[in-house]
Amino acid sequence: KAKRPYFAYIPLPSPHYPIVPTKAWQGTTAAGAYGDFVAQTDAVIGEILQAIKDSGTEENTLVIFTSDNGPEVAGEVKPGVYERIGLSNHDSRGGLRGVKRDLWEGGHRVPFLMRWPGKISEGRVSNGLLSQIDLYATIATIVEAEIPSGSAEDSYNQFSFIVGKTPSLRGALVHNTNPNGYAIRS
Questions:
Q1: DSSP string, 38-51
Q2: Which of 7, 24, 78, 169 measures 20 to 30 Å from 47, CA to CA?
Q3: How far is residue 113 CA from its own chain's centroid?
Q4: Are 106 and 97 contacting, i.e. CB atoms less than 8 angstroms apart?
């Protein structure tokens, strides 16, 4: 039986409030503290990936990097997303409409990066629908853990989709961060 995989949880805030680039990274980009923090986060993740490779566990380690919502407008993060576009042409919404706490796609569609050499093809990009909710059932399947009855009823095992063998099992996803409405993404 093959060795069970390791899972790398990266305990860094994705570029999200609080924005706290270290002194060495402050002023290194044209996008203010947010841009500096994105650059620092990218560099630190590179160091983590190199450490996994150096440890000899790379082919048995699934790394997941994602965020919980779209970018902040302002207030908590200065400059906010719209100001950053003007300052440095950096649009952290990826050109989508909406921001954090909106029902629009820019408030919910976030980077979802996964790396698992030998399982996930390098450079693979998919437009299929995947939710962080699906991590529970997917990881449980990978490590052969039983999901207790009545748990994770809205989580789909998306392993075959993640490795590029099948389309996503998820046809739709409900978005809600706003007390005045819901959105359905499909």
A1: HHHHHHHHHHHHHH
A2: 78
A3: 6
A4: yes
Rg over alpha carbons for the chain, rounded to the nearest Å, is 18
Give, to the nearest 10 degrees, the angle between helix 32-55 and helix 81-88. 90
Percent of the chain beyond pLDDT 70?
Answer: 89
Read off the tokens for 177: 């961060």
Sheet strands (E) in the chain: 6-9, 61-66, 112-115, 173-178, 181-185
Sequence-distant (≥ 6) Cβ neighbours of residue 74 within 8 angstroms: 80, 81, 82, 83
Q: Is the peptide bond before 18 cis (omega within 30 degrees of 0)?
A: yes
pLDDT above 90: percentage of residues in the chain: 41
Q: pLDDT digit string (tens) for 58-116?
A: 988 889 888 888 787 766 667 778 888 888 887 888 888 988 888 888 888 888 889 99
Residue 113: HSE in the Cβ half-sphere, 13 Å Cα cutoff: 14
